[in-house]
Amino acid sequence: MGIRKLGYVGLNVTDLGAWTDLLGRTLGIGVSKSGSGEIALAELDEFQYRLALYPSTEDSPRELGWIVDSPQELDRLSRRLTDAGFTVEEGSADEKELRGATELRWFTDPVGYRVELAVGEAKVRDRRGATGLGHFVQAGPRLPELRELYESVLEFRLTDYRAPGLFFFRCNRNHHSIALASADTASIHHLELEHGSIDDVGRAYDRAKAQSVPISISLGRHMNDKAISFYVRNPSGFHLEIGCGGIEVGDDWLPHDFGRSDEWGHHHADANPFASPAS
Would the CATH topology of 3-119 be identical to that of 130-265? Predict the structure, then answer.
């Protein structure tokens, strides 16, 4: 498979200070600045960054980046995208340098988001606490076209799903790297920041409660990937999931409707837009 993992996400943010405070003081994630000093980079693991925050007059996704196995696979996927009607562009030299990539291409998905395919990652140093960017959930209109893009063109595999329209896809052995859901307007429902242990998650949960950070979904365990996590409402208005312990699946895994959303916990502060009819 050409795409190896979720590499990074870039966000336009209106309140960089609030984001930096949430990541550092509450979640224990270091934040550095890019060479130009304008972009904040969340230090989730040993690589250059997994989350980039760009000061802006609006809060919106800027880029969604996938790591590709090799230049040959990048060429192959580029041909598949072109054959499917997408226009594939080359990333700039500055963009490649920031991402630590040797090659970078991008296209626009059916709802208007910039999706990047990168070869190479720049290691910086070892870090403790968060261990990487786990997955994101993208909600929006044109769900059949998004499914066609990820499943048929980019060759993701369906892991499982839940009525009335939430689908989980994988590009490696992790249960999922992206989930797609139907909604009236395009948005990122949440990003998951992967931690190494339940103790790391628990300490972040304690800090969030002590600092009165809005906990949008309480501590709980998902039914499908078995991850233990909680969610906070970030300064851009969507969720950050802080989790650990998601399962891996093999080639013999059979996609299925996993029914209810959680084993326990995960009580929503607001109405759950993806609640199944049974719930």
Answer: yes
